[in-house]
């Protein structure tokens, strides 16, 4: 599949890479329709690596090396690891991109954003600036049928941040397939 791979500061390459892995139970493979590019990505491109584990394995994701960016993406479920899961092939979803374990003390206290092994798809492991990305189903939300794809690239609290910083949040939605 085609993907935008981060190799270091000012070194982002459009490459042919192995397909996103087949989803395990509890995961879904998403065919990406839109992927945002936010200030974090811009900082990583201009001044990184700050968050991408280019040279050492990330303790949460276990990933290291060149990384497909993109942590604000929406698309269509292309495959599921478990037919009894939350989603079915063809469902439109938006992904939260942050992964948590669900079992550490912070997760059990409901503070999953402070999970001991928290990591973000598109920063600490491969993300959505690609044709496909495989993620946990629990980080995904269904997109209402009444909503158009570009308007649901990411929940509004993050979109408004992009809008303020650029004056045109919608222009930051990047077509990736
Ligand atoms: Zn962001
Ligand atoms: Zn946890």
Question: How would you summarize what this structure contains?
Answer:
The chain is of the alpha+beta class. The protein has a single domain, classed as Medium-chain alcohol dehydrogenases, catalytic domain (Quinone Oxidoreductase, Chain A, domain 1), CATH 3.90.180. It has helices at residues 39-47, 105-108, 156-166; strands at 2-8, 11-16, 27-36, 67-68, 73-80, 92-95, 98-99, 119-120, 132-136, 140-142, 173-175.
What does the average pLDDT come to? 87
Question: Distance N terminus to C terminus?
Answer: 10 Å
Residue fraction in strands:
25-35%
Count of distinct strands: 11
Shape: globular
Give the number of domains: 1
Query: What is the CA-based Rg, rounded?
Result: 16 Å
Biggest sheet details: 6 strands, antiparallel
Identify the CATH architecture.
Answer: Alpha-Beta Complex
Q: Write the CATH fold name.
A: Quinone Oxidoreductase, Chain A, domain 1
State the helicity in percent bands: 10-25%
In CATH's first tier, which class applies?
Answer: Alpha Beta
Key features of this structure:
six-stranded antiparallel sheet, 177 residues, Quinone Oxidoreductase, Chain A, domain 1, three-stranded antiparallel sheet, single chain, alpha+beta, binds zinc ion
Description:
The chain has a single domain (2-175), classed as Quinone Oxidoreductase, Chain A, domain 1, CATH 3.90.180. Helices cover 14% and strands 29% of the residues. It is built from three helices and eleven strands, in the order βββαββββαβββαβ. It has helices at 39-47, 105-108, 156-166; strands at 2-8, 11-16, 27-36, 67-68, 73-80, 92-95, 98-99, 119-120, 132-136, 140-142, 173-175. Strands 3, 5, 6, 9, 10 and 11 form a six-stranded antiparallel sheet that branches. The chain has a three-stranded antiparallel sheet with strand order 2-1-4, with no helix packed on it. β1 and β2 (11-16) form a beta hairpin. The longest helix is centred in the C-terminal third of the chain and has 11 residues, at 156-166. It starts with a strand and ends with a strand.
């Amino acid at each position: 599949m085609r993907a935008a791979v981060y190799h270091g500061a000012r070194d982002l390459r459009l490459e042919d890479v192995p397909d996103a892995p087949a989803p395990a139970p509890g995961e879904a493979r998403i065919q990406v329709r839109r992927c945002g590019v936010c200030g974090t990505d811009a900082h990583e491109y201009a001044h990184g690596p700050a968050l991408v584990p280019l040279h050492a394995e990330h303790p949460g994701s276990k990933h290291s090396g060149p990384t497909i960016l993109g942590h604000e993406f929406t698309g269509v479920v292309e495959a599921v690891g478990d037919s009894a899961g939350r989603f079915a092939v063809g469902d439109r979803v938006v992904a939260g991109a942050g992964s948590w374990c669900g079992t550490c003390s912070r997760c059990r206290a409901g503070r999953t954003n402070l999970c001991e092994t928290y990591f973000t798809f598109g920063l600490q492991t491969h993300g959505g600036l690609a044709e496909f990305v495989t993620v946990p189903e629990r980080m995904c939300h269904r997109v209402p049928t009444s909503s158009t794809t570009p308007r649901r690239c990411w929940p509004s609290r993050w979109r408004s941040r992009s809008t303020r910083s650029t004056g045109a949040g919608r222009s930051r939605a990047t077509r990736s397939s």
